[in-house]
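Listing S7. Sequence submitted for prediction.
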Amino acid sequence: MVNGSDPQLLKRILVVEDDPSMARLLDAFLQTNGYRPLSATDGPEALEMVEQERLSLIILDLNLPKLSGFEVCQRVREVSQVPIIVVSGRATTVDKTLALGIGADDYVTKPFNLQELLARVRALIRRSEQAPEAQGVLQFGSLSIDLGARQVARLGQVIQTTPIEFDLLRLLASNSSRVVTHQELLVRVWGEEYVDDRECLRVHMSHIRRKIEPDPKNPRHIKTVPGVGYRFSACSQE
């Protein structure tokens, strides 16, 4: 039994799922583990809940009536940085890449292990509750990274980044003098539970390069160190 004073009871998790049996399963599992699950069965209902509730995390299916999960994720990211875990039976790389690119923090394919999902839920909520990082602006030629405002700009134009993309870029740019390993990036941005998820890291790095590099195939800033990790170059050539 969960102690009534447990702070997790204040953490609301929105489950956006139109399959009643899956929704009931997730609802019961989250409640058993001390969270307060809320439910939405379609896209518009989910967006309404985002506006009305103070959420700690969203578990989002992609195949929804009225609005797809992709559309819901994109609209949520316009107004909120709440962590989003996509849980879907669609296992293609294209779907995963698209979902992560528009703002999902994680992508879990059905069928999944409930304990693994719980570990990821806890890790993402913990990350979102971390104390703010150092303030200030990192400047690399025409590329600027405002740590306090969590804003990236190039040639004076603001670049829209997802919460995960910004955290990865901040970590790399703040350590521009050294190689940051895959493991360090995964643990410090996502959590210990993600230490082996290199595919997720690779997808996010690809999206960051497309956003900040003039030529993503020949990057000036984010360099790959094969088999080790990534290094941020302070190169200011334009």
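Caption to Listing S7: primary sequence and predicted structure tokens for the chain studied. Residues 7-128 form a domain with the Rossmann fold fold (CATH 3.40.50.2300). The two ends are 60 Å apart (CA to CA).
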